[in-house]
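help with these tokens:
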Amino acid sequence: MDRAVGGVSAEVGNAGPPANRRVVVLALLLLGGGAVALAEGFGWRQGVLLGLGGALGLVLYHAAFGFTAAWRVFLADREGAGLRAQMVMLTVAVLVFYPALAAGELFGRPVWGFVAPAGVSVLVGAFIFGIGMQLGNGCASGTLYTVGGGSTKMVVTLVFFITGSLVATHHLDWWLALPALDPYSLPRRLGLVPALAMTLALFAAIALFTVVLERRRHGRVRSIAETPRAMRWHRRLLRGPWPLVWGAVGLAVLNIAVLWVAGRPWGVTSAFALWGAQVADGLGLEVVRTWPYWEARAGALDRSVLGDITTVTNLGILLGAFLAAGLAGRFRPELTHPWRPIAAAVIGGLLMGYGARLAFGCNIGAYFSGVASGSLHGWLWLVAGFAGSVVGVWLRPVFGLSGAGRQPS
């Protein structure tokens, strides 16, 4: 099966195009030079986080590891390899996260998880995020790595993602006043061993559910270790495409690394709200500073975004995907697109940006890192986000987008 993401598809049955050396050299210079500059100007942590972001972008691109397409494939075709890969990713992560968060440290460094209230704001935010990710053709991490990989249409999604994030900060106090459970940590409430056993059982049950439905529909189950074409492992490691299991393990290990370096898990969308607020403030819209969300974070608007953990990691993802696209020889931006998919990108970006703020994060910060942190809100996000994706897949044909799974995500 051909796996394609953001207009950049894995070519089957041949060695693929030659690497774009100019792109590779430029990407390496930007990553290396940027890491050194950040370390000198903002401390070693920022330089390392740019490198970790670069590794995340490369893994996401080479594995075509998406949340949007994985859910759409399952909804449309009952093929669950993408969901099973997500369960592997989460399994590897919780095996380290749970003990580390219970101890309050990882390899001698203090760490904390993403544990947030589970309530109406999460339910509504994740639901509209799920709709938006199907219309926008990518989730938060998917938007970043496809932009880095050369998808010009996803630049539209990103711009309106940022816009939606900023608008949500204006309304957030109202949403947070709605009913919600107090932050609930499974390891803290149940104990480390019972929480770990229950969580791993849930992952296994989800994976088994996809196996049953996929076998019923197709008579076979696709392996997450399946590779699109024969290639020596070291060449595949460098140029891609990767099997899904490589992507799953790679993302889990890198999230663990982010936890150790940053002291908290991988997140994406808080930076989008910050970017939007700084742009608005720079354009003279100082009213943003009067919003309660930014009054509590006034210092963030006065400091350089390069001192922000999430911003630097996001920039690394863009550059890592840029590097991966160059290595794969697939950095070929297209400048023209039909108007209906562009309209979907606008609406999808707005919904994702707005929804992510309401839900305390996106598919990364709330779902991946939230579940890995043992937070109940992460599980609520998964259920509501998946329900929103059902609606989003149903709406895709209205915007000239295929509802089938084997399409760019």
Summary: The first helix runs from residue 21 to 42. The radius of gyration is 20 Å.
